[in-house]
């Protein structure tokens, strides 16, 4: 395994057992909010207070949750693998807190906020940074309003070049806890298949793109993933 090139893509399901809600399950975030009201550039223009408070509430939750057995198992697995890339669609920091410090966040991060003027991101995790009022940057002469450092619908996912390059070279591609609804993340399994990689899926329920995987394991990531990774090590 040490010689193999392994790429893992995670989604909201991996953080569910830590107490963070997914998006599309029965009690998911998109049951309560319309995507276009809180997760688009148009929403930010139309009702910035609603969007700001929606993501500030998500940020405050980071302080209450901790990595679970699935995050921990991936951190251990990474130490046994020379070529390991972890890509997440999640905006939480649970992979980093488990030990995967160089996780690629293709949909952005809650830990950082971004200056609307300069585009520069800054870590804002002090107590005062979790308020319901807008915050302002530390980079401009006249501090400018910050937005959340999240990829909204209609915006380009981050680090796509690095992501494609890793998946195109992968021998093993594992997806954990994602419904396969959102592209380009959902299409990465096709890139891995084209590269000749073995593809494995670990998810609570069979997602949209389940037929694209060589192996499908249905169940909770925290219960299944540690054994699956142990067997691969
Ligand atoms: P979804 O909410 O669409 O899917 C989560 C998946 O995790 C579902 O298929 C569940 O069955 C599964 N799941 C739930 N609990 C699980 C558990 N304990 N173990 C394993 N699987 C479990 O979340 P994503 O696929 O991550 O984007 O959503 C992709 C993107 O849609 C998100 O990054 C977000 C959202 O809109 C943006 O905000 C840009």
Layout of secondary structure:
Blueprint: E1 5-10, H1 13-16, H2 29-32, H3 35-38, H4 41-46, H5 48-62, H6 69-79, E2 83-88, H7 94-98, E3 104-105, E4 108-115, E5 121-123, E6 146-150, H8 160-168, E7 172-176, H9 188-194, E8 198-203, E9 215-218, H10 221-232
Parallel strand pairs: 1-2, 1-7, 2-3, 7-8, 8-9
Antiparallel strand pairs: 4-5, 4-6
Helix pairs in contact: 6-10
The structure holds 2'-O-acetyl adenosine-5-diphosphoribose.
Task: Offer a concise description of the structure.
The protein has 233 residues and is of the alpha/beta class. It has helices spanning 13-16, 29-32, 35-38, 41-46, 48-62, 69-79, 94-98, 160-168, 188-194, 221-232, and strands at 5-10, 83-88, 104-105, 108-115, 121-123, 146-150, 172-176, 198-203, 215-218. The model has no long low-confidence stretch (mean pLDDT 95).
Describe this structure in words.
The protein is of the alpha/beta class. The chain folds into two domains: 1-20 and 66-107 and 157-233, Rossmann fold, CATH 3.40.50.1220; 21-64 and 108-150, SIR2/SIRT2 'Small Domain' (2-Layer Sandwich). It is built from ten helices and nine strands. Helix 6 packs parallel to helix 10. The longest helix is centred in the first third of the chain and has 15 residues, at 48-62. Bound molecules: 2'-O-acetyl adenosine-5-diphosphoribose. 2'-O-acetyl adenosine-5-diphosphoribose binds at residues 11-13, 16-17, 22-25, 28, 39, 89, 107, 151, 177-179, 181-182, 203-205, 207, 220-221.
Overall shape: it is: globular
The CATH class name of the largest domain reads Alpha Beta
CATH architecture of the largest domain: 3-Layer(aba) Sandwich
- Beta-sheet strand percentage? 15-25%
Cofactors, ions, other ligands: 2'-O-acetyl adenosine-5-diphosphoribose
Count of DSSP helices? 10
- What's the name of the CATH homologous superfamily of the largest domain? TPP-binding domain
């Amino acid at each position: 395994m040490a010689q193999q090139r392994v790429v893992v893509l995670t989604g909201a399901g991996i953080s569910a057992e830590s107490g963070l809600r997914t998006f599309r399950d029965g009690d998911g975030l998109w049951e309560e909010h319309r995507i276009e009201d809180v997760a688009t550039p148009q929403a930010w223009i139309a009702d910035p207070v609603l969007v700001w408070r929606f993501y500030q509430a998500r940020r405050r939750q980071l302080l209450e949750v901790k990595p679970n057995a699935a995050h921990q198992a991936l951190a251990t697995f990474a130490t046994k693998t020379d070529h390991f890339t972890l890509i997440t669609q999640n905006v939480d920091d649970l992979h980093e807190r488990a030990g995967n410090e160089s996780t690629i966040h293709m949909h952005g991060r809650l830990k950082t906020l971004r200056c609307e003027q300069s585009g520069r991101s800054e870590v804002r995790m002090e107590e005062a940074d979790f308020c319901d009022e807008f915050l302002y940057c530390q980079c401009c002469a006249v501090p400018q309003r910050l937005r959340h450092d999240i990829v909204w619908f209609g915006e380009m996912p981050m680090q796509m070049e690095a992501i494609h390059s890793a998946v195109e070279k992968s021998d093993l591609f594992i997806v954990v806890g994602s419904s396969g609804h959102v592209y380009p993340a959902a299409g990465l399994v096709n890139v891995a298949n084209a590269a000749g990689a073995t593809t494995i899926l670990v998810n609570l329920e069979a997602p949209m793109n389940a037929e694209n995987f060589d192996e499908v394991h249905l169940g909770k990531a925290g219960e299944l993933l540690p054994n699956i990774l142990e067997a691969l090590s």
